[in-house]
Amino acid sequence: MDALLAFKMVPDLDLVTGEMVEGESTAVDTGYLRPIINPDDEGALELALQLRDQAEAAGATLPLSAVSVGGPAADRVLKTLMALRFARAMRLATAEDLTFRPDMVARDLADRVRQGGHRLLILGRQSSDGASGLVPPLVAASLGWPLIADVIDLSYRTDAALMVTCRRPDGVLRLTLRPPAVLAIADVAASYLRSPTLKDRMTHGKRPIEVIDVAEPVANNAGIAPLQPLPIGYSSSVERRSAVMVDGSDVAAALSALSAAWRGRGRAGP
Amino acid sequence: MPITRTEIVERLIAMLGPDQVVTDADVLKLSSVDRFRRYEELNGVFMLPIPAAVVYAESAADVSAVLAFANDNRINVVPRTGRSATEGGLETVVENSIVLDGSRMNRILKIDPYNMLATAECGAPLQAVEDAARALGLTTGHSPQSKPLAQMGGLVATRSIGQFSTLYGGIEDMLIGLEAVFPNGQICRIKNVPRRAAGPDIRHIAIGNEGALCFITEATVKLFKFQPENHVFLGYTLDSMKDGFEILRQVMVDGYRPSVARLYDPEDGAYHFSSFADGKCVLIFVAEGPAAITKATAEAIEAIVAASGVCKAVERKVIKSWFDNLNWGPEKVAEERVEIMTTHNIGNTTEISATWDVINDIYERASARIRAEIPDMTLVGGHSSHSYLNGTNLYFVHYYNLVDIKPEEEIVKYHHPIKKIIVEETIRAGGSMCHHHGVGKHRAPWIKDEYGSSYYMLETLKRAFDPNGIMNIGTIIPKA
What we know:
Shape of chain B: globular
Helix content of chain A: 25-40%
CATH superfamily of the largest domain in chain A: HUPs
Number of domains of chain A: 2
CATH topology of the largest domain in chain A: Rossmann fold
Oligomer: heterodimer
CATH class of the domain at 228-323 in chain B: Alpha Beta
Strand content of chain B: 15-25%
Radius of gyration of chain B: 22 Å
Number of helices of chain A: 6
């Protein structure tokens, strides 16, 4: 069993400030923001590394490879993944921005899975910029594999089986999975990717990453309606807190005042 | 016979009342450390003696009473305000210490736009003082990364500096007057005048004393016109730190004063500027002030950079976006705590200064030694962020994975050995081991090497103002 991890670089929208809004518009030029690993994808990468740790502790191997679709902003992360002993790190270079072409991203990822002979594709549920959430189901459909959605944890069982934990509206579902499958990760607890040591970078991180030119986008071939980007807007929503001072010398009076304040919450405070 | 822990608490409550004396066990534990031991604290491990009480002073008279009581009874006092200290200055290293907290003394006493002065009590957050100044179109010019957390007393006591120091200076250049209380209870006020030549400048007894000589209760700082409409942001990439230092030197020696002049090495640059650094060093400047001066400063810097022939310009908006998100507030502290506990990777910093002729050697030697001698390092980098006519500072940044250790071993295995390398290489080259975080308790072992023959002056100050040795034992001067 080996796994392909797919991740995407996205602008760090936490860095948006009111001053970055252009003129009268609410549009924000995100080109000036630091690129980060899409949060769900970062969780997926760390979960996969933890899965590999468990496999190795059991005396098995679980080769990991990584792929990102887009520009060179991903190269820094790909080098880090090589230092973390990924077997391969690939960037699929495209001439066009595919943020709103989940059909094309799914096509390219499915091609990589087939060419690499991988049995698992692990990726975040959706990106924070395109946010269609369509890539996991489209790539699963393309491969003819089951899609396990909202995965929050993975455990190694045997060379051929994993324990997968998923969040469901009515609780948590644990199932034993025998690959192949596509796993869509969302809101995991371990959401930060670990750091390789400088020694790891010297020992493993010098291996080259692969930059692969992929085919030009073609007409929408997934049977889905064309997606249109919505402008990212900025609005200030400072949450203000108010306080009511309660005299604590008389407990009954204090409770009464507190109760009155509680009933009146929602109205503008002092 | 020494006074007991119970008696200390009873006497403090009798003196100030129960609202000002806190003995909650969790508060006391957290008050035994600062950010230097944050990994231990995150793990709920507290190795140092737990203080007897945290006392919240509400006036200079309160401070005077507590210090006089502690002095009479030989009780260690650890002064604090915003609690953003990073070097162990707030650690309680002897039994039954009193942590004297000035954060309730938080009034902004006066904003004087005619004489361009702001006066605030020690517990006034710098952010609040700055906001009050900005409301009048003014600024303190002081913007340390800890601005959302730090308070006026601590900023003066640790000789702090801000991101715009190359124009506005450090706190020592901004502070006009102050009020401080000494261990015998004596309240001293240094008046606000633009300059004085009446003997030694005694402001410097209080500035940077780190609570080892006195408790600062009030500070008056300069104000400047705030003209953000004139700000110019400049950014470049280049291959070598040595070339970058030379460009910084040229800007300073030619007489220009950008508010910001920063040089990042490739490792630190990749961390901060991942969108464009691409394995290069990063050089950034901000010119601010009146329009004509800003324009002249920016044009001169562009000319110096162009003449160097080694820099590639980057989009100015990228630099502005980075500045907008540089400061550390409570939300970043909370996020860091989660990240440390999930990744078992932690970062620390050590800042030094030196003259232009040796700064690059210190950078290269210390960085190489850390990489070679310390295990599990994930990032060894640094930047220069405060430049002067005669030299600059270096802010070493070191991240490491925490491997096979108990929480209390983090300092022994990683943090101290790294600091030791940086301090040794800096002092050997003739630099200063502390640029703006203070000595705290963890650089005190090298204080005699730092001062050389002038240690006599430091030691004499300590003996004169704190003859019973009750002020922040172990800070600046090592515990006996």
